[in-house]
Design goal:
This protein has 115 residues and is mainly alpha-helical. It contains six helices and no strands.
């Protein structure tokens, strides 16, 4: 069963979109295989697969490599990674607040601070 894709307008805070998902979409749009990207970037297909499947993060070196091969700015890829990392932290903080033994009012105030 595949996940339904969301448009940017449908996404809500806490939706964790890994940059690898965006890369997978970009490869599909270009009809480019993971192997072809790996070859162009002088990487193994397994490294690209880890990235596409959200098990590897974008690094500055990887972002520059993607820029060179795909023509998409390295800053774009790094911003996606930073946003993903921040969303992960926020979600973790909100889960901790939910589990905390404090009043509902206090939980709501804390959640607003982490949103």
């Amino acid at each position: 069963m595949s996940k339904a894709k969301k448009t940017a307008d449908e996404m809500i805070p806490g939706d964790l979109i890994h940059p690898g998902e965006i890369l997978a979409d970009e490869l599909a749009a270009r009809k480019m295989t993971q192997q072809a990207l790996a070859d162009e970037m002088q990487m193994s297909k397994s490294e690209i697969s880890l990235l596409v499947n959200g098990h590897r993060n974008i690094t500055p070196v990887l972002a520059v490599g993607l820029e060179n091969v795909l023509g998409i700015d390295a800053e774009f890829w790094m911003n996606l990674q930073i946003r993903h990392d921040i969303d992960k932290v926020r979600k973790k903080m909100q889960n901790a607040i939910d589990k905390a033994n404090i009043s509902t009012d206090r939980k709501q105030k804390l959640k607003r601070l982490t949103a």
